[in-house]
Amino acid sequence: MTPETDEASLSPRALETRERILDAAESVFVQRGFEAATTREIAAISETNVATTYRYFAGKEALYAAVIRRRIEPLIELMDEFARESDKPRAAANAIHAVLERLADHEGTTRLVYREIVADGPLAEELTKTLFEPLLDRVCAELRAGSRVDRDMEPFVAAIFVHLSFSHIALAPLLSRVFDREMLSPESLARQVEVIQAAAGLGRAGFPTNE
To answer: Where does residue 4 fall: left (phi above 0), alpha (psi -120 to 50 degrees), or beta otherwise?
Structure first.
């Protein structure tokens, strides 16, 4: 994967330009997918030019990765935040809800990430190493902290968490039409938290039960 310009080295004006490019790229990638998207269209929407785009991102792959990273890295930070809470059962439920809300806030990019991973796209391996492994490491650490799940079961419980969170957002338009219900409403997200907890054997307490 090609590198991108380090944010810490940018001036406030340059940071604003970078964010504008990322916003435009996110819109184009969500609408067209990685293959059909062009840096020319992204530059036009961001009111820059192709040369400026390449000044911040070394190529379309780097730009695509940055778009996804901008939405996934905050999930890792959320897990770290909830990991500091002493009430682990409550922290688990709150973490699931916070992740769902964050994914719903950027539903287009969530669907983009879901398609990339499910299709095992060209960047899936790199995204797994840089983003999803750290995210799932946090999920498993929280499960381990609750001391109510066998180590061998951690991958399966983590898979339920990822699948039922990302797929809920990705499939929300379809499910909303089928059931005539807004699947991204606060009420629906709260119910989905309960579904994830139940499917993972977490129950309302927050951690897998062995009864």
So the answer is: beta
Inter-axis angle of helices 88-105 and 133-145, nearest 10: 160
> Is the Cβ–Cβ distance between 165 and 96 less than 8 Å?
yes
Rounded distance between C-alpha atoms, residue 94 and residue 108, angstroms: 23
Q: 84-93: per-residue pLDDT in tens?
A: 877 777 777 8
Q: How many CB atoms lie within 10 A of CB 15?
A: 13
CA dihedral of 7, 8, 9, 12, whole degrees rounded to 10: 80
24 lies in which domain range?
Answer: 7-61
Percent of the chain with pLDDT over 70: 87
| Residue at a domain's end among 61, 77, 100 | 61
* Phi, psi (degrees; rounded to nearest 5) at 176: -65, -40
For the stretch 69-103, pLDDT in tens is: 999 999 999 888 888 877 777 777 888 899 999 99
Mean pLDDT (the chain) is 85
Q: Residue 207 falls within a domain, yes or no? A: no
Cβ count within 10 A of residue 76: 17
| Amino acid in position 53 | T
